[in-house]
Amino acid sequence: MALPLLLVAIVLGDISTLKPSDSHNAFSLVIQYCYYRLLPLFNGACFGKFVKCSKNIRKTQDELLLRLLRANAQTEYGRKFKLGNIRTREEFAQQHPLTDYAHYDSYIKRVCTGETNVMTPRKLEFVAMTSGTTGNFKSMPVFAGAAMNFHKNLMFYVNQISARITPLQRVVALRFASKVRHAPCVVRMGSLSSYIAPYPPFALTPKETAFITDETKQCYIHALFALAERDVVYIEAVLSNICHTFFKCIETNAEQLCLDIERGRLYDDIDVGEDVSRVVN
């Protein structure tokens, strides 16, 4: 019995030195503490690999390119463009056309109908959609292993962040949900950020915000909580354009946001659903 009590005392003492934000509840505080204390232990190997690869970036990029070409050489796309015959980056630049989204559009549509081995032998797990601000939204297939590779190769940033911040203050995690959609092959479609980086349980904005499918309203709620919180330590987003949308929302709605913070409740004309309104108000 003495050992568990000692461990609890040590953890509580450690937490007190990390200046936790007053707006934490017990759950978010413990989860964020575990995240910043334990995750760097698992990310050490990833960070070491990143540093090693950074010493010779050209070699790293060439090896990655050739590895991808070999992995997809026997797909329909790979056979058409003879990816298996390419041995160097220079050969790839000479033999493969410079492409844009239109080049892949027909292949993507076939993948989304359920055809396999078209672009890659891996299984389709998700279809990411762009916001459609420049026209119709575009689809981007996400295949098995992509999310794991994302976290494995980029989570080294946790090591850097943890060393530079007060780790138990609040994090604004910008995630924009979208209406539930499915591709013709029944695979789920939505925003890339919501799939590849799920909403962290210790984020400042209530988890109910993730169920708002209107991006403008969702961004407003993120902005409201971020401006009302004194202890925001950093803002996190998967893509830079999400941060731009967030700050644009603050700029556009500055007066209304200030009024809502002063009143301590959302203005009446914004419909975000009963669950969100109950938490926010």
How would you characterize the overall build of this protein?
The structure is a single chain. The protein has 281 residues and is α/β, with parallel strands linked by helices. The chain is built from 13 helices and 6 strands. It has helices at residues 2-17, 26-54, 57-71, 76-80, 89-95, 101-112, 146-154, 156-162, 192-196, 215-228, 240-252, 254-263, 274-280, and strands spanning 124-129, 139-143, 170-173, 181-182, 188-190, 232-236. The strands form 2 sheets. The protein has a 4-stranded mixed β-sheet. Strand 4 (181-182) and strand 5 (188-190) form a beta hairpin. The longest helix has 29 residues, at 26-54. The radius of gyration is 23 Å and the shape is globular. It starts with a helix and ends with a helix. The relative contact order is 0.10.
Key words describing this protein structure:
single chain; 281 residues; alpha/beta; four-stranded mixed β-sheet; 13 helices; 53% helix; globular
What is the element layout, followed by pairings?
Layout (H helix, E strand, L loop, with lengths): L1 H16 L8 H29 L2 H15 L4 H5 L8 H7 L5 H12 L11 E6 L9 E5 L2 H9 L1 H7 L7 E4 L7 E2 L5 E3 L1 H5 L18 H14 L3 E5 L3 H13 L1 H10 L10 H7 L1
Parallel strand pairs: 1-5, 3-6
Antiparallel strand pairs: 1-2, 4-5
Helix pairs in contact: 2-8, 10-11, 10-12
